[in-house]
Amino acid sequence: PYHRWMHLRQTDLHIYVSHAQANICEAGRALKLPASVVIANGVDLQHFTPASKSEAVQRELNLQPDQFVFGSVAGTGAYKRLDLMVQALARLTEHRSRAVMVVLGGESGGRQLGRLAEQLGVASQFRFVSHQDDVRPYASVFDVGFLLSDAIESSPFAAREMMAMGCPMICSGYSGLLEVVDEGMTGFITRVGDVPSVAQAAELFMKMPPERLQQFRAAARDKAVRCFGQELLSQKTC
Question: What is the DSSP letter of 149?
């Protein structure tokens, strides 16, 4: 009774952070909420902006000029499914030696991923960095970002931050991630929990001519400016 009274009589507007989340919350409701709107999470577009590759980070991670970097600043929670990218690296064929995976997050998750990389023979291509107060120098060296979650992600900040820095994305087709990436323009959507589709997306990026990859990078930043800014969030909320 309390929730019926609160949601139906005392709440002026129900705000969801993604259409996917709204659909999940509304599904099966006997009583539809009287007023609702989708307002996605916003990021600071002046803070997260395209930048030259950090030379300090390249030295720290021993990255070579000809290597192609897939990176994530989204943490190492199990539902982030970073293991899928490790497995995808092991599946790459002609481009495998150039591919590098960089992950920022918790120590425990990093160690688990390191063990998996060793088991699959790609330990030399895996780089782990513990949590950082400022992820931007690390994201600057990414050629492509990735977020392959299979749970929880309603409106992912990390994906928006990476795109604001001009990183095209490889994302799973789960919940709010579907609303971040425009397939074939700002990145690629993979099947949830599916290693072959992740490997295929990675191969597509690595085979791209530099000018085509730059188009993806520009489109990622443009999508962030049009859709992810904090100002837009504030305007819609007010």
Answer: -
